[in-house]
Amino acid sequence: MAYDYKLLMDKAKEASRNSYSPFSRFAVGACVLAKSGKLYMGCNVENSSFGMTICAERCAIFKAVSEGEREILAVAIYSPNSDDCNPCGACRQVMYEFQPDDTEIEIITENLGELNIRKLSEYLPYGFKI
C-alpha cells in the first residue's frame, strides 16, 4: 500500500524534538498510521529507573490504542542521532500485536535523506499473537 511516507517521516522528526533522553542523549520520534487513517506521534521518554523508559514507537502505538485504534498500518521512526534508526525487539513485538491480519505493517526509516520502507516480517519473522 502506498502512503505519504514523507509526511509520516516529517511527523516522526517533529516528535523527536519532544524526546526526554537525558541519560542516553539519543532522541527518537515516531509517527504511527492507524488503519482509520489517523496519525499518532510519540517520542522516547527516559527515566532514572531505566526499566520505566519507553521507546518512541511504543509511545505512539500506545497513544493510538488509548484512542481506540487496534490496527496499525505503518510506523515511521527517526533519530537525529542516527541514520536508519530501527525498532528494538520490544517495539517489534508490540507492532506485531497491532498488525492487521490482512496487512503487514510497513516500517519507514531514513538513511542519508533517503526513505527506507521495510515490512515488519523483515524485523520480526516469528512474532506471535494470543
Describe this structure as you would to a colleague:
The protein is an alpha+beta fold. The protein has one domain: Cytidine Deaminase, domain 2 (3-Layer(aba) Sandwich). It is built from 4 helices and 5 strands; from the N terminus they run H-E-E-H-E-H-E-E-H. The chain has a 5-stranded mixed sheet with strand order 2-1-3-4-5. Helix 3 (89-97) links the parallel strand 3 and strand 4 (106-111). The longest helix has 12 residues, at 5-16. It is globular and about 40 Å long.
Write a compact overview of the structure shown.
The protein is of the alpha+beta class and 130 residues long.
Could you name the key traits of this structure?
23% strand; globular; single chain; alpha+beta; 130 residues; five-stranded mixed beta sheet; Cytidine Deaminase, domain 2; 5 strands; 4 helices
Give the tally of β-strands.
5
Assembly type of the chains comes to: single chain
Helical residue percent band: 25-40%
Which parts are unreliable, with pLDDT below 50 for 5 consecutive residues or more?
none
Number of helices: 4
CATH class: Alpha Beta
**What's the order of the H and E elements?**
HEEHEHEEH
Distance between the termini: 26 Å
Q: Give Rg in angstroms.
A: 13 Å
The CATH H-level homologous superfamily: Cytidine Deaminase, domain 2
| Strand residue content | 15-25%
Number of domain units: 1
The CATH architecture comes to 3-Layer(aba) Sandwich
Which of globular, elongated, flat, extended, rod-shaped describes the shape? globular
The residue-averaged pLDDT reads 95
Largest sheet: 5 strands, mixed
Q: Which class best fits the helix and strand makeup?
A: alpha+beta
What is CATH's topology name? Cytidine Deaminase, domain 2
